[in-house]
Amino acid sequence: MSGDPVYIHGTAVSFKKSGILIIGKPGSGKSSLALELIGLGATLVTDDQVLLVRTLVDEPSLMQPPKVLEGMIEARGVGLLRAPWTPARLRLVIDLDKTEAKRFPERHETVIADQSIRCLYKVESPAFASMIMAYVKGGRLK
Predict the structure, then answer these.
(1) Backbone angles phi, psi at 135, to 5 degrees
(2) Annotation says 103 is catalytic
(3) How many domains does the chain have?
(4) Are residues 13 and 39 in contact, defined by beta-carbon separation less than 8 angstroms?
(5) Which domain holds residue 108?
(6) Catalytic: which of 4, 9, 82, 114?
(7) 82 is catalytic
(8) pTM of whole model > 0.90?
(9) Which CATH number is 120's domain given?
(10) Which of 89, 63, 44 is nearest to 5 (CA)?
């Protein structure tokens, strides 16, 4: 079953086919976090606008860039950069508009394009990008 494509204001990266959608208000750091994740081994999916395509009911949406944004990411103070890109299935959402205050938080979910997806809130730590990569590589124990 397929549905109409949905556009989301956000940035997305992929790590071993696991798509990470970063959402937040303009200027919240979506592109900067994506660049940090790319530096840690992720691959760009798209910056600024994410096209979500639902191909099957029981599969996560496929994230890809609008054609005009393929392989581009903004680096504030540097400019528009080219980067390798790949489509990816949406597996995790990072919400930069919400800050996690708990040391051991409850698991969060959010609904994106009629799908319930695991969600992490922003953590005020210079290691946040590394935390995300550790999460997608091995999951959370508690």
Answers:
(1) -60, -50
(2) no
(3) 1
(4) no
(5) 6-137
(6) 9
(7) no
(8) yes
(9) 3.40.50.300
(10) 63
